Amino acid sequence: MVARGVDVVIGFIEAHGRADTAALVRGLEVIPRRSVSYRGVVLEEMDVDAIVARHPQVALVDELAHTNVPGSKHLKRWEDVLELLETGIDVVTAVNVQHLESLNDIVARALGVTVRETVPDWVVARADQVVNIDLAAEDLRQRLVEGKIYGRDKIPSALANFFTEENLTTLRELALREVASSVDRAREDIVRRAEGAPAPVRTADRIVVAMASDPPQTAMLLRKASRIAGRLNTDWYCVYVQTPDERADRIDATVQRHLVDNIQLAQSMGADVVKLEEAAVAPAICRFAREHGVSLVIVGQSTRSRWHQLLHGSVVDALLRNDIGLDVLVVAFRGREGK
User: Fold this and answer.
1) Whole-angstrom distance, CA of residue 287 vs CA of residue 17
2) CA of 227: how far to CAs of 118, 195, 197, 209, 234, in Å?
3) Per the count of CB atoms within 10 A, which of 5, 64, 82, 302 is most buried?
4) Full set of structural domains in the chain with CATH
5) Is the pTM of this model over 0.70?
6) Higher per-residue pLDDT: 232 or 74
7) 207-245: pLDDT as tens digits
């Protein structure tokens, strides 16, 4: 880009002591980092305000999923990137596939690792172009052995744990699938524009997630819905039906806190969150679906005992018996714990 006369600066690149990385960025203007004192330790973060003031055409920003030091302007680096984009600065950034929010459960089951730092899928979907840096598992492990990824003291542990050939192959397959989906969506947009067709009206494939107040698997349900919406390139809603038994003066404080956390998670993943106050859950969801052009409702498998369902009825069963042509996808939870 520099050779073509593009004004490029380094907003934040973490070389981790790698000579190859340092050589690649040599000669580029570096925006000084901001020093932040936290618990007696001075840490460095990207200086968003300084980049905005410099206002280059392009900023290079590493580690999109990074969590900023408490007290920073934004909680996450991807929020810093969004601010740069809003000011008219293009951003070239990088993220590992395991940090995609919708893949969190899949990664945890396949690799046995819970990734704490994630990026909402909708943030990545905003990219004009997604490039997959593909490397065979054995080649990546060789780079690790040569000290091109971590320091020598961390290599044995990394090889034995996260950087196993099986784990790397799994991540590579996930990355290829994500890029393939991105390419498919981009191709559809290009063909539509070339043919002069108007933007598709998103009604037939809208999705709604029926969210209960406090099931422990809500995050899994939301990630499943996010992935399906991404595949269909459509809007999705997260609907919580507050029954009289779950009014604010009756609901347990812990349940209320979990509900708020789940709503925030749904919003961060790009869902339109809707709260309905109704006596019966299933009819409320069906009415919402009919009014908003929803064709698919996603609901979690009931965790209630069979006796409870016989005595009080089942929301899942009621949705399955709907008479408005609404498709229902029941996400199974049993058998997934501990995997």
Assistant:
1) 58
2) 14, 28, 26, 12, 11
3) 64
4) 2-192 (3.40.50.300), 206-331 (3.40.50.620)
5) no
6) 74
7) 999 988 766 688 888 988 888 887 777 889 999 999 888
